[in-house]
Amino acid sequence: MNETLIRVEGIAKKFTGRDGTDTTVFENLHFGIQPGEFVCLIGHSGCGKTTILNILSGLEQASAGYVFVGGREVNGPSLDRAVIFQSHALMPWLTVMGNIAFAVSSRWPEWSADKVAAHAQKYIDLVNLTGSEKKRPAELSGGMKQRVGIARALSIQPKMLLMDEPFSALDALTRGVLQEEVLRICAETRQTVFMITHDVDEAILLADKIILMTNGPHAKIAEIVVNTMPRSRTRHDLHKHPHYYRIRNHLIDFLVDRSKLFAAVSAEFDPRHPPLVSPGLDESDGADAGARSQTGGTPPLAAVR
Amino acid sequence: MKSLLNWKAPALSLAMFLLLIGIWHALTLPKAAPPPADTEYAALIGAAAAAGQKSAFPSPADVGAKIWQHLQEPFYDRGPNDKGIGIQLAYSIARVLAGYLLAALVAVPVGFLIGMSPTVYRALDPYIQVLKPISPLAWMPLALFTLKDSSVSAIFVIFICSLWPMLINTAFGVASVRREWLNVARTLEVGPMRTAFRVILPAAAPTIMTGMRISIGIAWLVIVAAEMLVGGTGIGYFVWNEWNNLSITNILTAILAIGLVGMLLDLMLAKLTRLVTFPE
Q1: ipTM of this predicted complex?
Q2: Strand A6-16 vs strand A22-33: parallel, antiparallel, or unpaired?
Q3: Is the peptide bond before A166 cis (omega within 30 degrees of 0)?
Q4: How does pLDDT run across A142-195, given as a tens digit for each residue?
Q5: Fewest Cβ atoms closer than 10 Å to its Cβ: which of A59, A111, B32, B270?
Q6: How many CB atoms lie under 10 A from the CB of residue B16?
Q7: Nearest to A91 among B181, B194, B279 (CB)
Q8: B184 has a chain A CB within 8 A of its CB
Q9: pLDDT, average across residues B43-70
Q10: DSSP assignment of B7-41, as one string?
Q11: CA angle, B95 then B96 then B100, to 5°
Q12: pLDDT tens figures, B173-183
């Protein structure tokens, strides 16, 4: 565990309401992220997913607990951890190049303008936006805006990329294309990523580990699902792999039923070491899932999207 | 179809203009003279009186001739009470710009501070609320007493009236910069000065410019009244001087000029606002 890049120890978030009563959104969360790992966090709305990401980025303070990055405690935002915002958060008065150059010159203030532009150009090319450098965000489609957001985050060469439902505002086709781009870029750059999503298929496609959160308030990490499928997976052959439906059914089972009931069965549950499960390797569960899919048991739409 | 629509509105404007001029012309036509009671008396008081009553209010033709005369020679200067309308407008514009720019120099930085700090906002809010509704002309005696110069006092009045919209809009624009842009700056570890100039200022610029546009409108309204009080030069003084001369044609010409200059100032600010506004 020495090589752990991010170590989260017992973080909690409480809000004090207007009547003075405390609401605990989540508490006692423990998990770690290894370098080069892609970790997704799945949970229903209201379990504090975005708050967790904001605490990891340093934009928000946890009410309790600590976050360590490379052995040092997080006490504010840092260039080590780049954030890709759900709403892309591009500055409309800057061009594509300007938005990325702003980040680059913040990272390396001593660089000359030429060097900054050359570096920014490299990342514009990486996200396939070559030719749109001089456009302003208003002239770009939603998918292109999010590409700029990704290029801006990667251009500062962070140790860690934090993504807050980056594709949820996009249409299905654009989302698919961008997911593959992220997969390609992460394979190229060996980037460590922590991503929030509520899209089960997105998590299975992208993540090495999927953290499952129970419903809030008092949300916890129920278990961490290991994605046992090979990293070379693509959107097209994903569903042909034998592990796919086992993992998918496991996740959907959790989101539909177990995320609500979790509190009742947590007698032997140790929040410091949430169970690490590999449903992809579970033969019996797979058979069960196969039988279910033959009887036409389609998963609820809300969870599949 | 589109070109027809483009053409309709100006045509309607022109029709309304002609209608108004026509009514004005009809109302100022010389009245037919009543038959003289005594032809001998009529001959004694002169042909003009005998020919009938000419309206005291000038006809459109009189005003048109006056405008033409002013356009021929807008910048003549024949002593303190006889200057061209161009010179008078130039005096007024210079005063407005001086007061307005001074106000911008104060309002934008102070507004920035108020917008950035809720504490400063709450501390200054009572002063702003009390000072804002005071008519700028109410400051005039105080300004004359302390500054001891009528021209500087007029500039001060312009300063005080254009201060508030700029101050309030700057504070509002700065305070309502989108949280996520600030978060981007924070995650990039951008320093406070760089955040202020590279993120907050461009984000708040459209709101600040709107405040500046409101201010220039108010400043142009107030300068006429201020110059009527302080006298000497300026378009406001010109209007009052022509009222003393009972030259309605000159007053009408000045009113038209005031409107046109005000429109031009507003157009300039509107153009500047568009330059700093970017759709998302």
Answers
A1: 0.83
A2: antiparallel
A3: no
A4: 899 999 999 999 999 999 999 999 888 888 888 888 898 888 888 888 899 999
A5: B32
A6: 10
A7: B181
A8: yes
A9: 77
A10: HHHHHHHHHHHHHHHHHHHHHTSPPPPPPPS-HHH
A11: 120
A12: 999 999 999 99
CA B94: distance to chain centroid? 12
Q: Which of B180, B181, B187, B193 to mutate to test the interface with A (most CBs of A within 10 A)?
A: B187
Cβ neighbours of A91 in B, within 8 Å: 181, 184, 199, 202-203
Strand ranges across the sheet with A81-84: A81-84, A160-164, A192-197, A38-42, A209-213, A221-226, A276-277
- For A59, which of B187, B198, B199 is closest by C-beta distance? B187
What percentage of chain A reaches a pLDDT higher than 90? Answer: 38
Q: Please identify which residue in the block is written with the tokens 């038959």.
A: B35
Instruction: Give whole-number Cα distances, B141 to B30, B150, B226, in Å.
Output: 45, 10, 11
Contact A57 B199 (CB under 8 A): no
In 3D space, the residue among A295, A190, A299 whose CA is nearest the CA of residue A244 turns out to be A299
CA–chain centroid gap for B250, Å, is 18
Query: Nearest to residue A292, comparing CAs of A229, A248, A256?
Result: A248
Q: What is the pLDDT of residues A191-211, one digit of tens each?
A: 999 999 988 989 999 999 999
Q: How far apart are CA A10 and CA A28, in angstroms?
A: 4
**Closest to B136 measured CA to CA, from B46, B211, B226, B23:** B226
Biggest distance spanned by C-alpha atoms of chain A: 64
Residue A266, token pair as written in the block: 């947590």
Edge-first strand listing for the sheet containing A22-33:
A22-33, A6-16, A64-69, A72-73
Tokens describing residue A182: 């992220």
According to DSSP, residue A161 is labeled E
User: Environment class of residue A108 by beta-carbon count within 10 Å: exposed (0-12), middle (13-18) or buried (19+)?
Assistant: middle
* Rounded distance between C-alpha atoms, residue A76 and residue A72, angstroms: 12
Whether pTM > 0.90 for this model: the answer is no
For A76, the token pair is 């504010």
Query: Which residue is it, tokens 């996009």?
Result: A170
* Cα dihedral A259→A263→A265→A267 (10° resolution): 140
Is residue A29 a contact partner of residue A42, using CB atoms and an 8 Å limit? no
Angle between helices A142-155 and A113-126 (to 10 degrees): 130
Contacts of B257 (CB under 8 A, 6+ apart): B85, B89, B235
Q: Strand A64-69 vs strand A6-16: parallel, antiparallel, or unpaired?
A: antiparallel
Report d(CA A287, CA A284) in Å as an integer. 5
DSSP B197: I
Q: Which two tokens stand for residue B51?
A: 């020919």
> What mean pLDDT value characterizes chain A?
84
Can you tell me which residue has the tokens 């750059």? A189
